[in-house]
Known about the structure:
Layout: E1 8-17, E2 20-30, E3 35-39, H1 46-53, E4 61-66, E5 69-70, E6 78-81, H2 95-104, H3 115-119, H4 125-138, H5 154-166, E7 172-176, H6 184-201, E8 204-208, E9 221-226, E10 229-233, H7 235-238, H8 241-248, E11 253-256, E12 262-265
Parallel strand pairs: 3-8, 3-9, 6-7, 7-8
Antiparallel strand pairs: 1-2, 1-4, 4-5, 9-10, 11-12
Amino acid sequence: MDMKQPVIEFEGAAVTLGERTLWHDVNLRVLPGEFIAILGPNGAGKSTLIKAILGLIPLSAGRIRVLGRTSHRGSTEIGYLPQRHAFDADTRIRGRDLVQLGLSGTRWGLPLPGLRRLWGGDRTARAEAKRVQEVIDLVGAAAYADRAIGELSGGEQQRLLIAQSLVTRPRVLLLDEPLDSLDLNSQQAVSALIHRVASEFDVAVLLVAHDVNAILPYLDRVLYIARGQTVLGTPHEVMSEETLSHLYDTPIEVLHTRDGRIVVVGQPEGVAYHAHDHAH
């Protein structure tokens, strides 16, 4: 892995919104195939970091390079899944059509230039339909892809949204709380799917999460954001009493259960949600 060139590079990066600096001095190199979780309390700037990579929010200092270029809007090589909003039960669009929107740019409101180059030829309806079916099969959604999206479970909807983010064959996948509001079984299934995409297709994945436990077995590293600072390392390096106590400047207790879960206790308000106990 060390011989690979980074696909994302932060160098002394900072973002200030109004008079508040969300984070500063961020230095990060993400390699192809890496699976990195972005953790931290509400309001720490996790989603802002994703949007800075996308070129949607300007830096106040430093720089971010994505695939060797300054971050900019609308790259077909970046798949993006925003924070999930539940579909109404009467939403009649088919799952397949939702995935198809990933080719039109309407999936997150940005144009997608270069589709002719991406496909290596004319952008035909047959070629698009084939690619849509490929990603539907990849995420295991073939059995319900032709049903109305409003009829599907949260986990089924999320698989189709991930397929939508993969339909342009991205090299970078940015996921903002993709496990939110899913039950534990769906969280585990979606986490395994994302790991498979990262490892089999050499896609770099950055995933914003509330609860680290569902993705813990699959992670390469964790970027933890709190109090304007960031800590980067393996999950057990970052999710430790020493690291979190130093980051929050207050004593933090971290427990490791027999089945491998992490439970954070004694933390200031807003910390526990990302690593809580699902044993109930």
